[in-house]
Amino acid sequence: MLDLRDGKVIGHEAVRDDITMLGQLGVFPPAPATALRMLTWRVTGRATRAATQVTAQTAEAAALLPHRPAGSVDRV
Question: Please, how many CA atoms are within 13 Å of residue 6, restricted to the half-sphere of its CB?
Answer without folding.
Answer: 1
